[in-house]
Amino acid sequence: MRRGASEPAAPVRKVALQTLNVRKPSSITPVGARAATTGDGAVPRIWHAAVVLDDAYRSAHGRVAALVAGLGQSELAWTVPACPDWTVRDLIAHLAGTAADVTARRTEGMPGPAWAAAHIAARDGRAVAELLAEWDVNVASTAEAIEDRRVPAGVLHDLLVHEGDLVEALGAAQPPWDGWAGAARLVVRQVVRGIRGSHSLVVRSAGTEWRSPDDAGER
Predict the structure, then answer these.
(1) N or C: which end of the chain has fewer CB within 10 A?
(2) Is the pLDDT of residue 26 over 60?
(3) How far apart are CA 159 and CA 178, in angstroms?
(4) pTM greater than the 0.70 cutoff
């Protein structure tokens, strides 16, 4: 129900996200723009969410795999501060299990805690090299499922968040902005637009603004 004209406006919470402007690749055309041909007459791909999310999942997988591939047993046993019930190895088991379940279309309970816990329990005792190999097998099919909208974009969001969790746990360098910023903007837009309540939320990032609960689109 909308507020009446005489009813005072609800307080607005403003959140500023530190971002960099990410330049779209020149081979991608924004939706709604006329597709210009390249030098050989070919028409570039259309810029849409699927391209960003698909590519972002693949690149994040590569970064996480490279981050943990050379870790020793002691490091794999470190607790992940953002997920205090998990070790670094547990987190990789969850990511591998997510891709396996998406590929097999075992999505009941996603993304609840019991669903995630089952990933870890089913892979108890397996070496991280095995977990990474299992994940490798399912990366392409998981990325395609995201692109085809067979699973929510939250699958990518989960990976990006856990990449940050690993970076924090290991004291590693932050991932490059151009690897995830574009996808993060899309995920933020979806999350903010889905918020409902008596208060308003405004998120501003790199000149773009999203509002809830009455967001009419990006500003």
Answers:
(1) N
(2) no
(3) 16
(4) no
Q: Say if residues 180 and 160 touch (Cβ distance below 8 Å).
A: yes
Cβ proximity of 93 and 126 under 8 Å: yes
Whose tokens are 């990511």? That residue is 95
Q: What is the CA radius of gyration of the chain?
A: 20
Q: How far is CA 80 from CA 85, 100, 147, in A?
A: 8, 22, 30
CA distances from 128 to 41, 86, 171, 177 (A): 47, 14, 19, 27
Which tokens go with 173?
A: 């360098």
β-strand partners of 130: none
Pair 21, 206: CB distance under 8 Å = yes
Q: Is 103 in contact with 138 (CB distance < 8 Å)?
A: yes
pLDDT tens across 138-183, in order? 999 999 999 888 998 889 989 999 999 999 999 999 888 777 777 7
pLDDT in tens, 89-134: 999 999 999 999 999 999 888 989 999 999 999 999 999 999 999 9
